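Researcher: Batch entry, complex prediction.
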Amino acid sequence: MIGPDTVGIAERLGVAADTATAIPQLAAETGLDVDAAYAVQTALIQRRLDRGERLVGLKMGLTSKAKMAQVGVDEVIWGRLTDTMRVPEGGTLDVSAFIHPRVEPEVAFLLDRLPEPGEPVGDFTDAVRAVAPAIEVIDSRYANFTFSLPDVIADNTSAAAFVIGPWSPVPDGLDNLGVLLEIDGRVTQVGSTAAILGDPRRALDEGIRLAGRHGVRLREGWVFLAGAATAAVPLKPGTHVRAVVENLGTASLRASA
Ligand code: OOG
Ligand code: MG
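Model: Structure tokens for the complex:
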């Protein structure tokens, strides 16, 4: 039997993103399982690297029950971040470049020296230089923001853009900081970093382990998004979004009108 057409599927997803045009789900039709879906994700990222983008980090997805329930997929997943996805703190995002963008509040880690593959992270503060509040913008390339597990993995876990707020040294009590998402000054989501696998530090262990299975090693200097602590909300044109993490401060962005 011939396997799925990895590059062809990546091209469909890449064009959907480039043209902000939703496509139907494709995993069932093309016979993608989880491993094949990560191969598609690799090809989709290669397409970005081929046009000059740089890998700058890794993001985790579905590390909280709120997120799993929102999208109906209950496995932890990971995707890649490139330099062009980063929006400066307080910057404006051109929402017309996206299909149906959503925002979610996250915690980011700035990676330091990481252990050899297969070895556990010993001291978290050796592996992570700093932490920051963050906003992730996700934009599923699938119609109605609806997908299966292999579909969302192939689509680089809906990654679209991200904002990182100010970096701080790793604070005490990182496993239970309050998290808010505000739109135009109104609180729309409330959570805690405890929602992220019980402790967001666990997201790093999972990222190292799961990405390692596919030959991807996290690098010093990379940004790591641990996953949203709350459900995501639609990003509407002309709005101002803030993610507030207790003791860490705020990440913010403006959606173009
Ligand atoms: C998948 C990406 C999930 C998170 O933080 O849980 C994610 C999606 O919801 O479309 O980024
Ligand atoms: Mg996310």
